[in-house]
Amino acid sequence: MDGQWVGPILGLLAGILLGLGIMYAFLRGRIKRSKVLFDISMQLNSTLKRREQMELIMNTAKQVIPVEAASVLLLDPDTDELFFELAQGDKGDEVREIRLKSGEGIAGYVAQNGQSIIVNDTKTDPRWSNRVAQSTGFVTRNLLTVPILNGGLVEGVLQVVNKKGTRPFTKRDRHLLERVAQPMAVALENARLYAQVEHSLEALKTTTAIKERLESELQIAGTIQMSFLPRIMPSSQEPYDVCALLKSAKEVGGDFYNFFKIDDDHLFFALGDVSDKGIPAALFMAVTLTLLKGKMGPGLSPGELLTTVNEELARDNPLVFATIVCGVFTCSTGEVVMSEGGHCTPYVVRADGKIEPVKLKKSLPLAAMEEAVYHDGYLTLGHGDRLLLYTDGITEAENAVQEQYSPDRLQQFLEMTPGMSSAEIIDALLMHVFMFTDGAPQSDDIAVLTLLRR
């Protein structure tokens, strides 16, 4: 009885062992393929550069599907052509020079239809195109091509060529390559985002470099601009006290002032505002100051000076203009002859504290019209009387609710200034304006000039 069961039992055990062996081989293959996919996922995090990602993925995939060559072809959205992003094998460099039209060859067919294809005999498949083979001399026996899909859209194709050994490509190979293509789509998307970030960073670096260079040039331009203005105030031995200040809203601005002695008894002074801001305004300001100083001389009235300077400035039809007020102070008599071109109303602060607006005949700003004529006005400063010139950066300074400082506030301030020196008045006026604006950014240049007859 026992002997009767020995044969069947041994046969059963042999069958079980054979089944276990087959199952082990199957599981071992599954584990190996799973490990490949895991390795690919891990490698995606090792670099964000597209070419490096493709190389890593392909090298890992070829461990499971041993082939002679492999390539990644991507779709050019502008031309609808496939180009070789990656081509491994003996003819890789030559292959990368080739582009395939939409639907051309197996790769073009897969890109067009989004379906994987196994071709185990290229000679019998009508979809096969030998253009690559003719260009490179590479003989293709069989190939497996799968689409690289991203959100249902074909980004390109993954192709392996000439499986090593005698076995053909199988559905299992196709399934594995399709799974390899999935992280490739992720890699392409990540690489695209990385390229955008790199491009943005490069653009930012370029912009920053340009900004730094411009800031440096603006600082130099600001230094040059300030060099046109008088830096040394007159001594206390002079029969007058004159002081001026310019505070630009940007690195360089368009407001300007000047004062200089024509002779021992006459002092010329001017203050103006160019219509533009920045470098163009600074250049126009430099030209204007140069003409004012170059043309002014003994016996020339302020009105005659502005008429002459305007002819020079307006001749070439510049895109900017400048408001201005200027004058000549006679030290011995206190007489002041003044002329203006579209500028803010000056004020006289008498020694007794009385505030008087200086009403000059209005003319056009410099360079507004070539034929413009400028007129002279007259006033007299007694001992202790003061003349104040300013630009609209003072009266039009705004606070947070866009309320302007206004001429009325300026007059109220001037009522508090008797006994102050010219420098003290300018400092106090700027403080008064900045307290009014209460931290609101300065939107316009500010220039102030005061002249006191001692």
Automatic annotation (TrEMBL):
<keyword id="KW-0812">Transmembrane</keyword>
<keyword id="KW-0378">Hydrolase</keyword>
<dbReference type="Pfam" id="PF01590">
    <property type="entry name" value="GAF"/>
</dbReference>
<keyword id="KW-0472">Membrane</keyword>
<keyword id="KW-1133">Transmembrane helix</keyword>
<dbReference type="Pfam" id="PF07228">
    <property type="entry name" value="SpoIIE"/>
</dbReference>
<feature type="domain" description="PPM-type phosphatase">
    <location>
        <begin position="239"/>
        <end position="453"/>
    </location>
</feature>
<feature type="transmembrane region" description="Helical">
    <location>
        <begin position="6"/>
        <end position="27"/>
    </location>
</feature>
<dbReference type="InterPro" id="IPR036457">
    <property type="entry name" value="PPM-type-like_dom_sf"/>
</dbReference>
<dbReference type="InterPro" id="IPR029016">
    <property type="entry name" value="GAF-like_dom_sf"/>
</dbReference>
<dbReference type="InterPro" id="IPR003018">
    <property type="entry name" value="GAF"/>
</dbReference>
<dbReference type="GO" id="GO:0016791">
    <property type="term" value="F:phosphatase activity"/>
</dbReference>
<protein>
    <submittedName>
        <fullName>SpoIIE family protein phosphatase</fullName>
    </submittedName>
</protein>
<dbReference type="InterPro" id="IPR001932">
    <property type="entry name" value="PPM-type_phosphatase-like_dom"/>
</dbReference>
<dbReference type="InterPro" id="IPR052016">
    <property type="entry name" value="Bact_Sigma-Reg"/>
</dbReference>
